[in-house]
Each structure stands twice: as C-alpha cells, then as structure tokens.
Amino acid sequence: MPPDALGLYLHVPFCTVRCSYCDFYLLPEGARGADRAGRAAFVEALRAEIDAAAERFRGMRADTAHFGGGTPSLLDPPDIAAVVAALRRGFGLPAGSEIALEANPEDLTPERCAALAAAGIGRLAVGVQAMDDATLQHLRRPHDARGAARALRQARAAGFATLAADLIFGLPGQATAPALDGLRAVLDLGVDHLSLYLLEIHARTRLGRAVALGRAVPPPQDETADLWERAVDLLAERGFEQYEISNFARPGHRSRHNMKYWTDAPYLGFGPAAHSYVGGERWSNPADLAGYLAARGRPEPRREPASPGERGREALYAGLRLAEGVDLAALRRRHGAGTPDADDARLRELLDGGLVTLAGGRLALTRRGRLVSNEVLERLS
C-alpha cells in the first residue's frame, strides 16, 4: 500500500463497568443505550458512517483497522464481521491488512475467540492491566488474574496472527516484585506485543478523586522509574523491541495501525468521540452516543483548526515517541515552521543533557529521555 494509506479507527463506546482510572468516552452497563438494542443500533449507524465516508473519500485506500473503546469485545462477532465487510467494501482493505480488536479477558472463550478470528480479526489486544487480584479490584476491572491468564491461553490457541496485552505500572499500592512477576506471567503466556503504560491520573476519574483526597497514593517516581527500567530490561531479554515509549514487540508484531499516529500518517475515525486526520486537517465526532444514533451515520464533526506550526509540533511530539525518532528535515518540508533545526538552542541543551540524540538528521530520545519524555517535549514547545 502507498505510504499515505489510511488507518481506520472504530470507537465502540460500551463497557461492563467504568474502570477507576478511565477517562475515555463510554457507557457502562445499565446506562441508557448500552443494552443489546443500543449496541445493534450503534452497529447500524457505524456501518452507515463508514459508507458515507467511503463516498466522501472515494479512491482512498486503507491498510489497517482498529476496534477500540470502550470494550469492542462486547459486540457480537457477526456484528464485527459486518463492520469489517463495510470497511473492506468502502476502503479496499487488501489481504494482509492489520485488523485489530481490543478485548477484555472476561469476554473471551474458545468459541468467541474462534468467532472473532472468523470475523476477520487478526490482531487481538487483551486488556490485562495487572496480574494480581487486589490491584484489579482497586482498578474496578471485571476480571481476576486467573481469568486474564485463561483468556490469553484461549486467544493464543485460536491462532490470531498477533496476540497483544496491556499492563499498567505506577499504580497505588503496586510493589516492584509482584509487578515484575505479573509481567513475566503475561510473557510466559506467549504474547507477541506488550503495551506497558505508566499510570496517568485524570482528575475526573474515580481514581483521580481518590488521589486528590489522599485515599490512594501512587508510588514515588523513583520507584516507578526503577520498576520501568527493570521491565524494559526483562522485555529485551525476552526478545521484545521497545519501538515506542510504551510499546514492545517481537519482530514483525509492531502495531501497524498505531504507527500511523506516530508517523503523521492519515486516519479516519468512526463512532462517537472518534478523531480523524486527513489532508493535514483534524476533526472529531461529538462524544454523544444518542446524538450519533440520531445522525444516522452523518454526525456533525468538530473541526480542530491549527496552524502549520502547531501541526509540525504535534508531528514532532508524536514521532519522538518512536525509538527511531523523527527526520527533522522531512517534518520541515511537510509542515514548515514549528520544527527545530540542528542549531536550535533547545536541542543543544537536550543533547548536552543526554536526553536526546541527533544523528543523520534524526532526532530521538535516549533511554533516559524516555523516562522524562514529558519534560523533553515541554522544553521543545
């Protein structure tokens, strides 16, 4: 496919419960519109939106699709298959395209895994988050550690081309040894890809309020940094490449869809709260399922205007998340202002501090720089 092939993102806004740390747009079980009828209406609207976008962007082709959320595994496999068929029809997804779906462990059985594979899903990402029950309960996850392990074994047996898992570090009450034991347990179950996130605390979440009130205390930053370093070393020993700050993969198992976000490539988003980026312009759907259903596949997008300089800085920040960094000259050609050159005083300071490298025109974070990536980006702003 050409380098400007689209990525397609589908936001499925349903979850069994809202986890304590989650700040995404979703409707938990019991909310209006979150029942089986609501999910069926959502799938119908989603297919209509895909058809409308295919008409608008006629001739554009895609090579990745990613079902995120929310919890896409709450959709019935026949509905997922129908959406995949709409994507193939509208955007010519060729054989070998990456079609990924996020799943929660409690939704996975051998039969459901087989049905997801038959529906066209080749990459399954399982939201494990932790492998000890006390932590999972504090996070309000619907599964336990045993269920997570069972789900990963069943998914591995189903023959997905890539099996991925998510874990979170830096959680309140999380100790180093159990966290590393949980990481080893997930790796022992044969995953090909691991997203290892450091906890981000959002004020509006249940966890954010608990932290603000002193009822939950994240571990000290130096402890989290040490845990992170040890995890990176363990993953390297197991044959995983850290290709992005939070993402590790065995050879051939990088997330091709997420690479589009980090390399300034175009993508289209479908569903409430989904974002799009095509032709240098960004827009998003309102975070409103009822309004989305009423629009019958034609939601009124919110435009996100920005100057070329702002777009250049966004591309710089996203690209610096990758191990190989960014080609500064290529960014300047694409976006003009907003991209520093080799003589920029801010860059020299970061180079002298050992936080970035600059070789062959590519700017990249060092291992130390990855630990303080937010600070590096602030200093480049």
Concise overview:
The protein has 381 residues and is α/β, with parallel strands linked by helices. Helix content is 41%, strand content 20%.
- Chain oligomer state: single chain
What Rg, in angstroms, do the CA atoms define?
A: 21 Å
**Helix tally?**
15
Tell me the name of the CATH class of the domain at 6-262. Alpha Beta
- Low-confidence runs (pLDDT<50, min 5 residues)? none
Strand content: 15-25%
Assigned CATH architecture of the domain at 6-262: Alpha-Beta Barrel
Mean pLDDT metric:
95
Structural class: alpha/beta
Write structural notes for this entry.
The chain is α/β, with parallel strands linked by helices and 381 residues long. Helix content is 41%, strand content 20%. The chain has a domain at 6-262: Alpha-Beta Barrel (TIM Barrel), CATH 3.20.20.70. It has helices at 36-56, 77-91, 110-118, 133-139, 145-158, 176-188, 206-212, 221-237, 256-262, 289-294, 308-319, 328-335, 345-352, 367-371, 373-380; strands at residues 6-12, 14-15, 27-28, 62-69, 98-103, 123-129, 162-169, 193-198, 241-244, 247-249, 267-270, 275-278, 281-284, 302-303, 326-327, 356-359, 362-365. A hairpin with a 2-residue loop joins strand 12 (275-278) and strand 13. The model has no long low-confidence stretch (mean pLDDT 95).
